[in-house]
Design goal:
By secondary structure, the protein is an alpha/beta fold. Helix content is about 45%, strand content about 10%.
Length: about 300
């Protein structure tokens, strides 16, 4: 029980002065709080009503959105004029939590692999779509010891996932499938730059031939430097954390395929990105007045 409530309970028997003195409460503060009781109750009711809408948005995002994303969703879809700080306060009060990302710095580089120049380096600020892409591959652990492996291609200007492929291996053809999907989405990516790490699959002959066929210029991060591929690391960290939902592995191969499939499709349409003004990649792309295209999954 807080001290103001205690003074109120004791007021009829002991008055106000004595309980305030014993509990260390200023009488002016007690009277002010009592005058504001109706306003406080109204704010609490408004917070509870807003918490219901916040919880609905939070659940629709599979529990991944934090306060900024939820505030943006409320403003855009519900016409709710609300500050993200208020949303954060209500989320704390009602125990609603978004997914918190912990960055992992690691590298899959092969020091002996054929090198390509770092045309992008660590500058991921791109303003023209279909000019710079980021390719990466990761693995999704399954309880029986196997893995599902997604390969992705992201348009750096839009943060849009333009191509992806999912398989039970990390062979070079998985990467070429993702590249082919990106080409089908865009029609052509000739003349653009594709930035990757120095992993053995990206330095393979098969992938080099796919580069040349697509007319793409190669860019690779410095060997041993995950910072040069930081955006891909961040994407994969979000991908795993928001699909695993606190687990360390997927219990079955079916779930290891379905959960990522659902997330990858939702990423472009619904997932809000702080880098592009709390908009989804598709919404951000539409602001460029580009012709909307459908993400082409690998065959």
């Amino acid at each position: 029980m807080n001290r103001f409530r205690c003074v109120a309970d004791l007021q009829r028997r002991y008055g106000v002065k004595r309980p305030c003195s014993i509990l260390g409460v200023a009488r002016s503060s007690f009277y002010y709080r009592r005058r504001m009781a109706a306003d406080r109750a109204a704010r609490q009711a408004a917070d509870a009503k807003l918490a219901t809408r916040i919880r609905a948005v939070h659940q629709e995002s599979d529990g991944t959105h934090g306060a900024p994303g939820i505030a943006a969703e409320l403003r855009e879809t519900g016409g709710e004029t609300v500050n993200h700080k208020r949303v954060a306060r209500i989320m704390r009060t009602f125990g609603i939590e978004g997914v918190r990302l912990r960055r992992r710095h690691r590298t899959t580089a092969d020091p002996a692999a054929t090198k390509a120049p770092a045309l992008i380096g660590r500058d991921f600020t791109v303003w023209a779509p279909n000019t710079k892409y980021l390719g990466d591959i990761t693995h999704l652990p399954i309880d029986d010891g196997r893995f599902c492996c997604p390969a992705t291609v992201i348009d750096l200007a839009l943060r849009r996932l333009v191509g992806w492929a999912l398989a039970d291996h990390m062979r070079a053809d998985l990467l070429t499938d993702a590249l082919d999907a990106a080409i089908r989405t865009r029609g052509s990516i000739a003349g653009s730059i594709m930035h990757t790490d120095h992993g053995a699959r990206y330095t393979s002959r098969a992938f080099a031939e796919a580069y040349r066929s697509a007319g793409v210029r190669r860019s690779m991060s410095t060997v041993g430097s995950s910072a040069d591929n930081a955006l891909a690391e961040s994407f994969n960290a979000s991908f795993k954390r928001e699909t695993l939902q606190g687990r360390k592995i997927w219990p079955t191969e079916r779930e290891a395929r379905l959960d990522p499939f659902r997330w990858l499709h939702r990423y472009n349409i619904r997932r809000r990105h702080s880098r592009i003004g709390q908009r989804s990649p598709i919404a951000f792309e539409n602001d460029f007045h580009l012709t909307p295209t459908t993400l082409a999954p690998a065959a």
